[in-house]
Design a protein that fits this description.
The structure is a single chain. By secondary structure, the protein is an alpha/beta fold. The protein has one domain: Metallo-beta-lactamase, Chain A. The protein is 30% helix and 24% strand. The chain is built from ten helices and 14 strands. The strands form two sheets. It has a seven-stranded mixed β-sheet with strand order 6-5-4-3-2-1-14. It binds zinc ion (2 copies). One zinc ion binds next to helix 2.
């Protein structure tokens, strides 16, 4: 076992992912209150003082709401691209001050090493200033985290390839979104190629990427209004079945809880 993985919250109202090894404990985003992050970590047996850093995907509030509190409370290194930092600095009335010594700049497409984990980010299509997704490597294992994707392109496909565990966005069901109560401009935003990924496209890409070393796919960042867990699951399940890809104890499909901790996965 190289990695432990769990979602502490995953959805349009807040995202926070835990990924750790024996030596290293990371969060990806902290878009919920500091309290909720602490409670989530407690559930999976991690003391927040043990954290080694938070990797930020982009500056939307559902990804950074608790970052200021956690940085100040635990003196945590926060990693983001230069452009994302510029935006977060502008938002300090919402996020609160982040101490200078906690700010670390990452460069896309460049590997960085933190203790025993190699981290690599890459750009994704989404309506933020410089949004990224992440790959984490340890020995022969790879974990990929990719949410807030307007569409799938070759870069994303290449980056998700070969992963042992993927957290992928399944934000909405297109029909639910279209007939739902969201105002027109918001529907257009979500459906645009810099918006969010729908269940159907998530299903297609998982089926296309499937390989025998893929151990778990977790569907995340579900919309509260335009999706529900059973629908996201069924859409992906049907597509896998249509390609004769069976779920088993060595290949699991799960939906992350919007609020609260999902199971802990070991890869
Ligand atoms: Zn976003
Ligand atoms: Zn988001």
């Amino acid at each position: 076992m190289e990695f432990r993985f769990s979602t502490i919250a995953s959805g349009s109202s807040g995202n926070c992912i835990y990924l750790g090894s024996e030596k290293t404990h990371l969060l990806i985003d902290a878009g919920i209150s500091g309290k909720k992050v602490e409670r989530g970590l407690q559930t999976i047996g991690i003391d927040p003082h043990e954290l080694d850093g938070i990797f930020i995907t982009h500056e939307h509030l559902d990804h950074i709401k608790g970052v200021g509190v956690l940085a100040r409370r635990y003196g945590l290194p926060i990693y983001a691209t230069r452009l994302t930092w510029n935006e977060m600095d502008r938002m300090n009335s919402v996020v609160g001050e982040i101490p200078k010594e906690c700010k670390y700049v990452i460069e896309k497409n460049k590997e960085m090493v933190l203790n025993d984990i190699i981290i690599q980010s890459y750009g994704i299509p989404h309506d933020a200033v410089d949004p990224v997704a992440y790959n984490f490597y340890k020995n022969r294992k790879k974990v990929s985290i990719a949410t807030d994707l307007g569409h799938i392109n070759d870069t994303i496909e290449k980056n998700l390839d070969d992963s042992n565990l993927i957290l992928l966005e399944a934000n909405h069901d297109i029909d639910m979104l279209e007939v739902g109560s969201y105002p027109y401009f918001l529907k257009q935003r979500i459906l645009s190629d810099r918006g969010h990924l729908c269940n159907e496209v998530a299903a297609q890409i998982i089926t296309k990427l499937y390989h025998s070393k893929l151990e778990a796919v977790i569907l995340g960042h579900l919309s509260r209004e335009n999706n529900f867990p059973a629908l996201a699951y069924q859409t992906v399940y049907n597509e896998l079945m249509a390609s004769n890809i069976e779920l088993s104890s060595s290949f699991q499909l799960k939906v992350a809880e919007r609020e609260g901790v999902t199971d802990v996965y070991h890869v």
